[in-house]
Amino acid sequence: MTRTPTKTYARLFTAFLAVLFLAGCATRTSYLRLDPSLNNDVRSIDGFKYVPLTRLCDVYGLDCKWDAFLKTATISTRSGTIVLRADSDRILAGGLARKIERPVVLYGGAVFVPVSFARDNIAQMSSGPAAAPVRRIPEIVEPKRFGIRTVVLDTGHGGKDAGAIGRAYGTKEKDVALALSKKIKAILESNGMRVIMTRSDDTFVSLEDRTVRANKSGADLFISVHINASKSRYMRGFECYYLSNATDDNARALEAFEDSSLKLGGGADAMRSSQLDKTLWDMSLTENRMESGELAGYICSSVGEGLAIKNRGVRTARFYVLKHTMIPSVLVEAGYLSNRQEELELRDPAVLDRLAEAVARGILRYKKRYEETEGFTNV
User: Fold this and answer.
1) How high does pLDDT run on average in the chain?
2) CATH architecture type of domain 31-125
3) pLDDT value at residue 376
4) Helices 278-303 and 349-372: crossing angle, nearest 10°?
5) Residue 337: how many CB atoms within 10 A of its CB?
6) From 3.50.50.60, 3.40.630.40, 3.40.50.300, 2.40.160.20, which CATH number describes the 150-372 domain?
7) pTM surpassing 0.85?
8) What is the pLDDT of residues 39-82, one digit of tens each?
9) Domain boundaries, the chain
10) DSSP secondary structure string for all residues of 250-293
11) Are strands 48-52 and 329-336 parallel, antiparallel or unpaired?
């Protein structure tokens, strides 16, 4: 068969385009190579190439923090933060969820990331010679707010849920927590802050509703106010909790008691599990958890200045309201109703005034430091 000139030219043109495409692919590969010093660090895991995250960040001069509790790593870059989670193929980049080629893995006690992730997200931040521009889907990085303007005060228990009850005088936790919260609110508002209360009277609010309200409020901090109790009548003092595993029997017992009101609210945990992606939820908790620990430290430090109450310091537990609130969050336990002397003191409005001043002072000091350091309170 004799080929017409038109068909011949069409085939030649198609071949020419294919050569250009392959050349483009080859060029792309060349300028997305990793730093040569990483060649000896690459490992084959399940047939795919991986590189140690800490070594990768060292080579490119990036800060990386590993949260062993949530098994997440936060990489600080010039264009924002990237959060990864072990055994997940999704990341949070600039606050937006993205999928990567292979999941992050824990291998030999170290965190390994796919080489493709390292090339596409890290290698381009090298301080070496400028590479040819790479066509990427643009990331939207939300502008950071370095001001703390709004606080959610979560007054514990309420209504049909009385909370702890004092042995000597029958004092109810829900009543003392409400009185203390109102005093804290007044002080914060007098210092120019906006305060949202999850309850401002003796009504029952489920744990799920408390966290939903907080997450929808646009607030900067979440402070849950409670009064403690123990099987031991000798236990006394002030504590401030942030999210992590309970470290002692008393914290575990308290965690179980505070979360027991889930039964009164109709089992919110099951509902939440069906609505939320646990992987992304846990990843977004990482930075908030670090800030929560710092906030708890400021509050306890302030309480320790001049108050007669014993300061038991910063503690950790997995309270429901801390697990499911997506802003820096702490839970205050302002004394023990199970201790006869502290129960009597907590019934005194003057004592609550001093407690409120100390808690509010800690919050305001954290706010001041946060704003002075543009969000890096641990610097």
Assistant:
1) 78
2) 2-Layer Sandwich (3.30)
3) 56
4) 120
5) 25
6) 3.40.630.40
7) no
8) 888 999 989 999 999 888 888 888 888 877 677 888 887 777 88
9) 31-125, 150-372
10) HHHHHHHHHGGGHHHHT-HHHHHHHHS-HHHHHHHHHHHHHHHH
11) unpaired
